[in-house]
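Sat 14:20. Reprocessing the chain from the morning session after the first attempt stalled halfway. Input below, unchanged.
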Amino acid sequence: MADGTVNDAPMLSNQHAPKIPLALNRGREAASYLSYIITHYYDLPDYMVFIHGDRYQTHNDDPMFDTLPLVQKLDLDYVDLEGYVNLRCNWKHCPKPYIVPQPGHEDSIWEAHGEYAKAWEFIFPNETLPEKIAAPCCAQFAVNRRTIHRWPVAQYERIRAWMWSREGDLPSMKAGIILEYMWHILFGKPAYWCAPVKPCYCGTWNICDLDCDETKGWCKGRIWTPDPPPSMPVCMSIGFKHGKSLIFSRAIGQWRVRMARRGQLKAGKSIRRVRMVTGYLRWIDVHKHFDDSRW
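Finished this time. Tokens:
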């Protein structure tokens, strides 16, 4: 990205190509990120954007959940200034600490307090364990070469080796959570990093005219609900591309049927969440609050 161009560097894993001898995939996106850094450590580009594979994802900080504008509008001068920039300004998992490291803590399936403390001791043996960890989710960020080079390549190899060594006793999902809330620390930010949202949007994407509630870390016109559904319906991207509420509604309807069959719509909260999605997408179509030029 040094000359204004973007070079894709998709990192395949053995999860997607099991018959090809590729790096072991652990920690969701974490092992792929680390493998890229390790492989290209001595010839890294000036700037890098680490993102997930799907274009449309509910954790994208975009009104249409689209990855494309997050990359297209990214201000590289701001990345150069900050060194590390989370591609989510909205306070998902802020301001309340998401992880409170506690050595010896017995974690539930969604907790990582005890395991985070173990990982910290291995990865940062000479550093004091933080009292609380917080940052917006979801492991998508931009970083410059100088910031990655704060650490020798051996440190990234050490982290990846830790992930691989825990394959038998630490679920991949939990390993991913640990790294998700360690990237910002690794790249020079405080352990508790809930930055003001309006300056974040203004600096990251030059979106500076937002109406924001800094106490809640939320701006009108960006993320429309603090708790969107965990995954996108398969055909929603078709709906986004054509901008038709009918397609949106059909996509959501089909999604609800599939979820109901799997027993995932028994809780009223989940049902209300899906209805909220449907209503919002219809509102977008009626008021034409999308930019056809991006397609």
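Residues 17-21, 241-250, 265-295 have pLDDT under 50 and may be disordered.
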